Amino acid sequence: MSLEKFLHNLHFDIDKANQPNWEADWEDAPLAYKLYSGLPVVPLSAEVPLTLTGGEPPARLDLNRVGHFLWYVFGFTQLSQSVFPMDSTEQDSYPLQSYRRFAPSGGALYPNELYVYLKVEGLLDGVYHYDAAHHSLVLLREGNFDSYIARALGNRCDISSCFGIVFVSTRFWKNFFKYNNFAYRLQGLDAGVLIGQLMEVAKRFGFASGVYFQFLDTAINHLLGLSEQEESVYSVIPLSVETTNWSTNGRGLYENVISEELRQELPAIHPEHFERSLSVREYPMITAMNEASKLNSTWAFRVMEGRGIAERVDPAVVLPHIEPLSYDLAEACGNRFSPDMDFVLGMVSQQQLAALLLEATASFSYRNDLDEAYRSSFPRVTIYSCLYNVEGISNGAYYYDSTEHMLREICPGDHRLHLQTGMSLDNVNLLQVPLCLHVAGDKKFYKKELGYRGYRIQQMEAGMLVQRLLLAASALGMGGHPLLGFDANLSDELYKMDQQGKTSLIQIPIGPYRSRPWLRGSLHS
User: Fold this and answer.
1) pLDDT value at 99 more than 90
2) Which of 515, 513, 493 is nearest to 503 (CA)?
3) 441 touches 505 (CB < 8 A)
4) Which GO terms describe its molecular function (predicted)?
5) Residues 456 and 182 sit within 8 Å (Cβ to Cβ)
6) How many CA atoms lie within 13 A of 289 on its CB side?
7) For residue 504, which of 485, 523, 517, 518 has the smallest C-alpha distance?
8) What is the model's pTM?
9) Are residues 267 and 352 located together in one domain of the fold?
10) Pairing with 479, which of 13, 37, 193, 473 sits 20 to 30 Å away (CA)?
11) How far apart are CA 286 and CA 274, in angstroms?
């Protein structure tokens, strides 16, 4: 199967993308976290702050503050146990246990890992893995790697002024064992959700940040000691509390750095880690996609030229002007809930809808290496929605025009049942949902400009926007449940996306919900 056909099937016909007769072997499932052995370990403080409302640069940056930051980004926050219902056909029912984090993940499998290059008080300079299971740092390489990382990014960031660099990686087997080739789509979305959480937490800690989607893959993976057949970095995120040059078009464009040549400057490391699965099966399409997406030269880096959005003449609904939401991120994270059959139909006010859309899109504006600095550009992922029972707004399908803060009506009417028929599982009753949002992006994932790397970048940006929507929904007292089991062709036709060259990337029902009868225990100290 060609890579082009694989990505098409991944989106529109998953059965053709997956290997046939696939069954997950839960007895041989991998751990949801990575464990290294035989390396120096630095424990992190568990006395994390109980609120996150700040934004000012820290008066003192030390290991404790970095540890608190990492916990809110990707630490374990909750132990969840569930059992099969009483009417289940399973003969031997037993509790299913999972470790939850503030950022959601498909099936709570968390295929991503966090690595950090740190230069802070109380810690040896070097590259570390964040061990979420023990809330600690594991030292992989000691030393100063400013020049190496800067060149791997094409000299487009002043690494010397940054106290830390975060590397978000994907471990392929961690969710391939369950989702087969569909894992490739999930891995990009999960990485984006994690990045979205990281960016929001960074703001509360007073850290400046930027996302680099383009870097020399092999050189960066070599720095971290990763086997590219098992794991690969998806994004590089510098963190700073000082003035930093975030240029996307610096001198790196004139100095070609070759990944293989840069890699030769550092000796290889092969840190041992524990793999619970006794049988790790092959995933040739995922490794082929990863290989086709790699960048081996900094001259291959691209800056996106803004594509204009086709002018729409649809009837418009101007949303009320509201002040930006002010909320405690720690509380919003703790209250975030993904309802299944827990949605309860209720009236949503225009103010709530306006706050949800404005907060998510305003927060989504971020520094990255695709857009030219100081030049406004249209977002690559946008929001469409089917509304029902929203105060003062007719039921219908709408496009959210974030530049004008208005809804543009595409197709009037109640579309809940229509959308329900497009779901592959009946795990959410859309008739109880007032807001059904779809995050959309370019149907050809900017392949002309970014090649196959454009697909995973698009999935990451969609995930980043999804996390902003979920946090805003939580702050407004509503729940949201991201879904990939929907018919993209159906929603694309409903929103007339073909006219825009777009497609629906993910579906998110949002609305009021009833409390679930369950026992919950927080791992928050």
Assistant:
1) no
2) 493
3) yes
4) oxidoreductase activity
5) no
6) 31
7) 485
8) 0.94
9) no
10) 13
11) 22
